[in-house]
Amino acid sequence: MKFFQSIKSSSKFLLTGIALLTTIAAGSLGIVWLRVEISRTAEDSRKLEKEVAENARELRGLNAKRAKELNPSSLKALVGNRLSKPKPSRVFFVKDAEFQRRQSLTLPHHFRQRRKATANSQPLVLR
After folding, report:
1. How far apart are CA 36 and CA 44, in angstroms?
2. Which of 11, 23, 47, 115 has the fewest CB atoms nearer than 10 Å to its CB?
């Protein structure tokens, strides 16, 4: 009887030990998997931060280029002598009442807007 009891108790210890080792092994594998996932996520985060920094640098460069191009002296140099005041014969004065009357008129047929405008169509089109 003692022999069977010792076998039963030793098998309980053996099963408990195996269960404990299995739990420890599964936990260790879980920890390793988590560390790998953390490393992947950190690498992805570094790539995204690098991309954001490059985009910000490019945006700053484009903003500086736009500011330089829209600078009045730069625009004056770009236009050169082509921009001048109109001749007096080409200047027309319109009374406010006449302006308001013409604003309320409908457009001729060939200047009407299309019903379905596309992204790259002009608002007023000739038909």
Report:
1. 12
2. 115
